[in-house]
Structures are given as C-alpha cells and as structure tokens.
Target: Sugar transporter SWEET
Amino acid sequence: MEAGGVADSLLSGACVLFTLVMFSTGLSDLRHMRMTRSVDSVQFLPFLTTDINNLSWLSYGALKGDGTLIFVNATGAVLQTLYISVYLHYCPRKRPVLLQTAALLGVLVLGFGYFWLLVPNPEARLQQLGLFCSTFTISMYLSPLADLAKVIQTKSTQRLSFSLTIATLLTSTSWTLYGFQLRDPYIMAPNIPGILTSFIRLWLFWKYSQEPDRTYPLLQT
Model:
C-alpha cells in the first residue's frame, strides 16, 4: 500500500476511534440511570440533539458514499437512541421528553423531505445537506459556552469533564484533518469550533481547580 493510502487509512481510523470514544462517554450516564433507577442530574437534550446530528451526518455520508461517515454516525445514532430509551424508561415526567423528541424528529423528517423530494439535483442536494449538517454541528459545539461562562464566574471546573474535553479535542482535530484531506468544507469547518472550545476548556482546567464530579454527557458530534 502506498504511503498516501496508509496515511488516509490511519486518519479514517482515528476519526472512527476518537468519535466512538467520545460517544461512549454517555455510558456513565446509562450506568447511573440503571443503578439509581432515576434520571437525576442526567441531561436529556444532549442525547436527543446528538442523535439528530448523527442521523443528519449519516444521510450526508450515504449521499456522498463515505464509509467512515456512515459507520461512525450509524453507530452513534444507535448509542444515542439507546440512551434516549433508557432515559425515557426511568423519567417520571415522560410527556415533555416525548414532545421534545417528536418536535426535533418532525423537523428532521421535514428536512429530509425537502432535500430528497424538492432538490432533485444530487450535487445541489449534497451541498445543501452538508450546509445544514455543518450549521447544526457548529450550534452544538457553541451551545456549552454558557457553561464556560459559569465556570469563569464560579472559578470552578466542577461542571466540566477533563476526559471529555480531551476526547472532543482529538475528535474535532481528526475530523478537521479528514475534511481537509477530502477538500470537504462541510466536514472541516464545523469541527474547528470544537478545537477552539476544547482549548478554552483546557485553559480553564489550568486556571481553576476541579472538584471531583461525575462525567457529563456529550452535547456535540
């Protein structure tokens, strides 16, 4: 195998490995819910938005014919759906959870209907779907900024997870390089904010002490 082919395979493998490690951080919440038979201190929205993000990128990967995107996001969607199912099982107030799920799934179905029925040109469909996926991923990476502001205000990194920060940094970096390799701005651009926010978190860990705390679930891809 040529050197370029080996490098491509290693980069693809890094994307798969780091992303699956990042997705698996939700297993701590899954274990917590099963042991306590409750959803106390577990956030539901990160599971749902990550699932929607996985399904969107899965469609983009299928349309593009990218095996790495397909495998990672299919696995991620299965994991997030598992987390959602367990959360719903132990949640005492199921109605708000079901309404949030139905609302986001409705938006996803309408989006897919638009892309697949009203955009007949495959190239235009790929570009528009890529733009949608990129925008959604960027919003997920930027959404925890409010938590970072609270860390600065309280001067404590208790609400942050160091292992998740490292996993996010490695995942974002590998996908940025993967997008650069493919010359695909829709893959490359949305992961740059993930790198930036990870470095901000690392700076906060350096500046403020961290008290022992449970690992929080991933909000981003």
